[in-house]
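Researcher: Re-running this chain for the archive, since the previous output was lost when a drive failed. Same request as before.
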Amino acid sequence: MSGHRRTWFVVLPDNEAASAVAAGQGTAERRALLHPGGRPWIIGAWPAGEEPVVAQAGPVGLAVFGAADTDEEELLRSAGRIRDPYDVLALARDLAGSFHLLATVHGTVVARGSLSGLRRLHLAELDGVPVLADRADTLAALTRRTPSLDRLALRLAHPLPHPLDGLPLWPGVTPVPPHHAALLAPDRPARTLAHWQPPTPDRPQAEAATALGVALRRAVGARTRAGGLVAADLSGGLDSTPLCFLAARGPAELLTVTLGSTDPHHDDAAWAARAARHLPGERLVLSPDGLPAMFAAVDAPGPQGDEPFPWTRTRARDEAVARLLAARGARTRISGEGGDEVLQVLPSYLRLLAARRPATAARHLRGHRARLRWGLPAALRALADPRPYPAWLAHAADRLTHPGPPTTQLLGWGPEVRLAPWITPHAADLVREQLRAVPAADAAPLAPEHAQHQVLSMVRHSASAMRQLIEATAAEGTPYTVPFLDDHVIDACLAAEPALRGTPFGYKPLLTAAVAPDVPEELLRRTGKGDFSPDAHQGLARHRPELAALAEDSALARAGLVDPEALRRVCLGLYPPGTSYAALDATLACEHWLRAHEAPVPVSRPVIGSSKESAWPSSCAPM
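Model: Regenerated C-alpha cells:
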C-alpha cells in the first residue's frame, strides 16, 4: 500500500449547535473550511494534491471536490453572481466533470453530488444537528450507528433493484438521491430538492451526436486541464479508444495502457495497436502473465469502503496496475467504464418506438429476435406486459429463488433480481421481506419510460462499483476516473432517440457519430468488444483453494446467510454452476465486507452521538 489516506468530508449547517459538534471532532488529520461568518462549514481529510477548489465572495462560499472544468478565479466570479441556493444548482449544471459542489449562501448550505451516484451524499443527525457527508461510514462512525445484517443480505441479490440498491448498510444514515441536492438551513430540518429529471428521449441523431461529442470533450478536458502525466486505458474497444484521442487534445502528457488477455483469439490487442499508431505519448502494454490473475488475492481483501466492493475478482490486478502507473508518475487513469451503460439500451425501448414509429419498431424487433432467439409470441407478451413498476417489484420478491428468467424480461423493467443457489432460506426471507416493504412512495421507477429506467439503474450499479474501485486504486497511487459517468454525458445519451442506442443493426452508432471529428475513421468500424471470460475461468481454476478456504471459514455462513458447503462446491467447480460470475462476485464482496466489520474498528477521532441498535452479530462494532 502506498499509504494514501482515505478521504472524507462532513458538511455542517451555519449555527452554534453545529459549531459545538465540530469542536468535538478534533483530530490531527482533520482539515477545515469555514462559513463566511467564521463557523465550521466542511471538516474532513484530503491529501495534498486533492484539495478542493474554493472561493468566497461576501456571504457566499463555494467548494468543488473532484475533477471539474473550473479554477479558483472562475469559481470566484461564479460566487459573485450567486444570490440564492437555486443559483448554485444552475452553476452545477454549467460545470463539467465529476465532482461534489458544496455552497454556503447567506447561511444556507447547498450540496450536490453526481447523477450517477459516483459522487454520493448521505445525511444523518448528530446531537440533533443535521450533517452531510460523502461517505455513509463516516456518518455511521460519527453517530455510532451499527450496520444492519438485513441490509447486507440485500447485497447478495443481483441485480439489486431500485430503490433498495441505494440503501446504506447503516439504518439512520439516509442517502440523498443522486438527482437531488441537499439543503441545510441554520435552524430548520434538512431537506432535499430535485435538480434533474430524465430528458425526453427524442433528440435526432445529428443533434444527439453533437451534444454527446461536446459532453465527452468537456468531460475528458476536466481530467487533463491540470497537466502532468495522465494514463488512459487503450483496450482497443469503442469506449476507451475515443477517450484516449480526446485526452491527447489536452495539456497533459498521455500514457496509454493496454492489458492483454490469456485468450489467443482475443482481438482487443490488434485494435489497440492500430489506434496507438495515431496517438502521441508513451504506450504501456501489460501481459496477463505479468499481472495477478483474476481471483488473485481473493482471500486477502483490500480496504473496505462504505459498501461491499463487487469487483473483488479483478481487484488485485487493478491495484497492481495502479502501482505501476504511480511509479511512472501518472496522477489518474482514464477508463471507458460506463460506456456500455449509457451508450446502449436494453430492448424495452421498443415500447416507446412502437408508439412513435411502428414500422421501425417491427424491424428492430425482428433483429433482436434473431440475435436473442426469441419466439414471436413470447416477445409480444413481454412487450404487452402492462405492470407498473411497483407490481413488477412485488412480483420479483416472489421469484427470488426461481431459475433464471427468460431474456424476454429485457422488454420490461429489466432483469429480475435473483439469489444464488448457495444463499440460505433465511437470507432469502430477509431479502423478500425488504422488497415487499418498499413504501409505495419509493417504489417508483427512475424514469417513466422502461428503457430510460434501465439505463439509469445500470448506471447506478456501475457507479457504485466504481466508487469502491477508485478508492482501492487511489490507495495505490493512481485512481481511476470515468468520463462516461459524468452528468453531461448521461444527459446527452438519455436525450437521444433510444433506437440510436438500442438498434440491433449497428454497434454504438451514437458514439461513433459523436467522436468522428476526433478519431480516425478506421478505428470506428469495430462492431464488438473483447470477452474476458476465459481469463475469469482460468483465474477461478488457479485460485480454487483460496476460494474454498473462504467458504469453509465464511463469516456469511456464521451469520446464517450462505450455505458453506454449497458455496464450497461452487468454488471448487470449473465454472459457477446454475448462476453467473455476478452472483459469486456479490457473495465475495459481502464476505469481505462482513469480515472487515466483525471485529471492532478503531475510530481515529472522538465520536459523539447516540447509539442505535440493529440486528448484527454481537462480535461486531460500528466503524
